[in-house]
Design a protein that fits this description.
mainly alpha, two-stranded antiparallel ribbon, single chain
Amino acid sequence: MPRFFHAFRMRLLRGNRLTRYLVYALGEIVLVVIGILIALEVNNRNSEAKIRRSETQYLNEIAKSLRSDLKDVHFNIRFNEDRLRSSRIVLDFLNSEAAYSDTLDRHFGSLLYTTRSVVNYSAFDALTSQGIEIIANDSLRRLITNLYSFHYHNVIDFEKQDDHALQYHVVMPGVLEHVQVRPVPGGETAGLQLGRPIDLSTIRQGNALQNALTMNIDLRIYMLSNYRQLEQRILECQQAIENELEKRSGS
């Protein structure tokens, strides 16, 4: 083909048909430009398809991480609900004149410890290293960013700076001073133990344990509110990712 075009140009030049040659040369230039534009368009489409495949992969990985995070949040909710219930039962008992019952052993043993969030950041860290802008949906990108950069950090910071401080400096010393703690017979689950007042009359005459439990109840309520709000944020993000993936699979 190139030889044909070359021979055709030579015939035009030999025939002194300059105008026709210029038209032909211009046509060649147009064809070359069109070829370049087509190649660029194909390359752009291939690049865009590659970006969308990467985006889908990251969204699937984040969705998987969120399922793990949600299980952790549910554990934290159940744990704090149990501690809140036991703290209320024990406080009500201490503020009464009721006789002690063995059924209270479980509740006196469930006054200690708190929770900490275990967040899987690997998928989000990989996404941010690639560039968060790879998420084309603006609202979805904001949901993911806010969840990992604000909501997770907000809960974790409060756990460390407030909840853990109260547990280790107020609740735990108050409980261990007045309650004899022992393991559950045959139990091998961490965080489960039984407890019994060392001197019930002394505890009732004082206010140390009652004050510690009152503060613990308030904080358990607040932490439960934090965890439930975080649960809703995760579910909202999960649903948005699911909708985006379904839209892509259907297109």
